[in-house]
Each structure stands twice: as structure tokens, then as C-alpha cells.
């Protein structure tokens, strides 16, 4: 049924936020009914914003947020000039909020807006504000709605959003910034649909996860060996949406013991996830399958498509094992930012990816203790990462 949908169905929400005071703003981190009012969040920091809805080819309705002006500017007092476009894509369990939570003068989205860029923030399928579908109810059709891997984000969400932004702004190219899974999705998109390289002016990947040959986390490496049994167990328990009601109920009741090793795996993942994402202002939802896809790659020491079974792989891909993503097809100019203290991405894997891509370079963050999530939560990210990004983008405008 969804196959007859057009490639991109565009719906524009009329609501727009103007800078000023907000009387009933939600406290930071509070989410009502699994929806976060991004416009209200931006408004509190003094930024005019817009919310747009993009519907993908398979029916997911994604909210994307736009900051078209500098702080305290509106359409009435802003300079009427054509601005270069920057699109920011969050990581796993993140959302558009990832790029504004540091606040004015510190958050990347605000810095870019104040530098004169037309800033767009993505929300991948299944996260806050993109938990919608033209026919599926995420609270009823849970298994079908959350049948999601990062490939779906790269192959369906990103093309829909990029095409929408370019059409609306009249631009032929945009700048891309992706953190963690936002980097993974970029690598998938531009290797599987290489024509999108022509729509990317530049890309800055912040701990963009791809190759897993040297995965650094020993605990997760051991868990990854049992990825498929843990994933199957999770589905039997009804754990399909991370942070969904079944997930929370399971965590309250599950016991780790010798006869229930799969539960032990899920509980360990929960603890690691909590340690990694405690600093995020808002922890968005995700599919357990997204975690499983990364687990499969860690186990295989590879960057490849979803593993079904040998027979299903043969039917789907024409081979017993899933094919690897051919990132050598990526021709866009890419800068891969990394840190040596990242528990989810190894320096050597970053270097090896950059060698394979045709126009890529690496940049190590100049703080030894900088972590995977620090790219979007550390107060010194402006000095360590963001100022470099702004300077690199300015080269295209000279």
C-alpha cells in the first residue's frame, strides 16, 4: 500500500515561533506525551523558528525544525539575503534538541544561526516529534512501526529531508553535520545512493560510526557475540521500542541470572546507555533493532547491511552474508571528527574510513578525555569542535 506513495509527500506546519518570553515553557528535559515542543525550547533562547513535516516514501512523518535568523531576529527585522544551508542530524537516542541544549553562544545550531546560516534540525523516524505515520499507530502497531535500522534513516529519512530543504530554499547543495548515528546514516546514504554526493557541499561527521574492526568497548564486544539471541529475546518480551512502556516495565521486573542470560544482556545495555546519555537534555526513543544492527556489525567487525539469516540474506541480497556499505563511492568533502576517549568508535576505524573515501580527512579533538557524547553536551565543544566547523564552512562563502 505504501509503495504507491510519492517519494516525498510534503506537509508544512503553519506554526511558527517568534523570539520573546514564554509563560508556560516546559522545564528542561521534561517531555509531555512523548512530544517535545522544539519551537518553545528555541523561543526561550530567543530564536525565531519553524516546524515542518516531511513524509517519507514509506509513510513516516518526520518533524524538522528550522532556525532561519540570528538571535532576536524575525522576518520583519532580519536582513533579506540568501543564506547557505546547514542540516544537523542527531545520533541514536538523540533528537533536534541535541544541537541546542548547550544554549546560546554554546550550542552548534545557535552558533551557526548567529553566523548567518539557515539552520535545519532533523528528527529521525521513531524519535520525539517523528513518532508518527500516515497509517501506523506507534502505540498499537509497535512491531511494524519500529521495524527500523539506521539504514532506513540513511536511505529514506535523509533523502526526504534533504530534498525538502533544497526545494524549499531553492539551493542545489547544503552543508551536513551528523553526530554518531547521524554520521552512520550519512555514510549509508552517500554509498547506497551516490547521487546525493552532488547535493552535499561539505560534511562534518562528529564521531560518525561506520567501520567496527577495532571497536573499543570490551563489554559491548562480548555482548555483541549474542546480538541475535538477545534481539530475539527482546522481541518475545515485547521490547521493540527503547524507552517505550514495555521497555520500562521489563527493566522494573527483569532479573539477571544463569538461566536468563539474554535479560542480562539487555540490562547491561540499559546501564551502558544510561551512562552514555545521562547528560542529554532529552533522551529520545529508538528501536531495539537499531541497537541490534550495530551489535551485528561489532560482532562481524564490519560495516554492513542488516543480517537476517543465511537463506533470507540470499533472497534479499543474493549472498549468504549482508553486503558491506561501499563508502568508497562517497565523493563529498567529509571531515571526520573523533576523540581517543570514545568508547563506541576507535581512532583506527576513523582513519581507515577516511582512507577509503575519495575526499575525506580526519580531525582529532584536542582533549584526551573528550567522549562520544561530548560532541553535543560538553561546554567546551565550541572551542574544540564548533569553531573549526564554522571556519571550514566560511571557506565556501568567500
Q: What Rg is obtained from the alpha carbons, in whole angstroms?
A: 20 Å
Give the topology string: H per helix, E per strand.
EEHEEEHEHHEHEHHEHHEHHEHEHH
Number of H/I helices: 14
Number of strand elements: 12
How far apart, in Å, are the first and last alpha carbons?
48 Å
Query: pLDDT average, as an integer?
Result: 87
Low-pLDDT ranges: 1-15, 20-32
- Summarize the main sheet: 10 strands, mixed
Beta-strand percent range: 5-15%
User: Helix- and strand-based class?
Assistant: alpha/beta
Helicity level, as a percent range?
Answer: 25-40%
Shape: globular
Word description of this protein:
Residues 1-15 and 20-32 have low confidence and may be disordered. With 398 residues, the chain is of the alpha/beta class. The protein contains 14 helices and 12 strands. The protein has helices spanning 38-44, 108-114, 142-145, 150-169, 181-192, 218-224, 227-236, 245-253, 261-277, 288-300, 310-317, 347-356, 374-377, 381-394; strands spanning 9-11, 16-17, 49-55, 61-67, 85-89, 118-121, 174-179, 200-206, 241-242, 286-287, 334-338, 360-364. It starts with 8 loop residues before the first strand and ends with a helix. The chain is globular and about 65 Å long. The relative contact order is 0.13.
